[in-house]
Amino acid sequence: MRLKLISCEIFYREMCAVVARSPNMVDIEFLPKGLHDIGSDKMLARLQSALDSVEDARYDAVVLGYGLCGTGIVGLTARSIPVVVPRAHDCITHFLGSKERYAEYFQNHPGVYFKTTGWIERGTDLEQLTRQALHKSGLGYTYSELVEKYGEDNAKFLYEQLCDTTRNYQQFTYIEMGIEPDGRFERIAQEEAAGRGWRFEKIRGDLSLLERLVGGEWDDRDFLTVPPGWRVVARYDESIIGAEPVSQP
Amino acid sequence: MADYSRLYDAILNGDAKTAVAVTKEALAENADPMELVSKHMIPAMDEAGKRFECEEYFVPELLLAARAMKGSLELIRPLLAARGAEPAGRVVIGTVKGDLHDIGKNLVSSMLEGGGFEVVDLGADVPPEKFVDAVKTNNANIVCLSALLTVTMPSMRTTIEALKQAGVRDRVKVMIGGAPVTQQYADEIGADAYGENATAAVTFARKLVAK
Question: Chain B contact for A90, CB < 8 A?
Answer without folding.
Answer: yes
